[in-house]
Amino acid sequence: MGASVTVDAQGGLAGAPERVIREGLKALKTRLPQDDWPEVVIVCDIIAMGSAVKIPGVRIVGIVAQGEDQPVVPLSVPCIGGVRDLLQCVGDEEIIIVDANEGLIYVSPDARTVIRYQSTALPEPPSRLFLESVHIPARAQDGRVVTVAGIAASMKEAEIAISRGADVIIVRFAELLDREMTSGARFLDPETEVLQTLLALAAGKRLELIVSETAERVARRMSDLPPSDQIKLLGPADEPIALSDDEVKSAVCSGADRVDVPADAVERVKNLIRSLPEQNNG
Asked: How, if at all, do strands 138-139 and 104-107 pair?
C-alpha cells in the first residue's frame, strides 16, 4: 500500500509529485532506514516503464500498469497489468492497495479495507492509542466506574461504538460476518480477516463475540491469531439487552457497574451516567 506516483514512457518521472521527491530526499538526508522511507505505488502506461523507475529515498511497494508487457528487470513487488483507462482514473498521491494474489487494486480504499490488508501483513494488530476524552471511563457521582458496552451487528456499528468511547464492544458475530460477506468485499479467510479487523479497530478494548453455530470455527480462527485475552466468546444465551436511557438511569441508581446499549448511544449514555445525582442510601 502506498501513495500513487504516475509515470509514462513519454514523460518519465517529470510529472512525479514534488512532495514525494522532497520526502525522498529528506529521508536520504536524515539517513532514515529504508524500512522507514516513504512508500509509493507506481501507476504507469507500460510495465517496462514502471519496473525501471527508481526514486531516491522512496520505497516502491507496487506497480499497476495499463499494458500487459514484461518488466525490464525482475520484480520484487506486487504488479498488476492490463488495467484499462488506468491513467485517466487514478491521479497522483491517491492511496492504492495492490493485491497481486487476487488481481485487485483498491484506489482510495476505506478504513476497513486498509485495516484488513494491514492486519494480514502484520504479526499482530497495529497499535492505536485513544486520547480523546470520550474514551475516559464513565464514573458515577459516588465514584463508581460504570462499564458501558456498545452492541454491534455490523462493522460500521463496531466503528461507531469504538469511536464514541465504548469500554467493551459486543459483536453479534454471525450477523456481522454475513453483512461483510454480502458487502462486496473479497475474503480469502472471512472469519480470520474479520477478527483481525475488529482487533485492529478495538486497539486493546475488550471484544465480546456472540456466536452460535460458528463458535467452533471462530475459536479455531482465534488460535491462528497472536495470543490475546482481548476476545471473549459468548453463546446465544448471553445475548445482550440494549437498555434505554431510562433503564440505564434505573440500573446505575440501583448499583449496576455495567450497562449494554446500542452502538450509537454509547457517548450519550456515558455522559448521562456522569450527570446522575449521587444516591442517598441513608
From this structure: unpaired
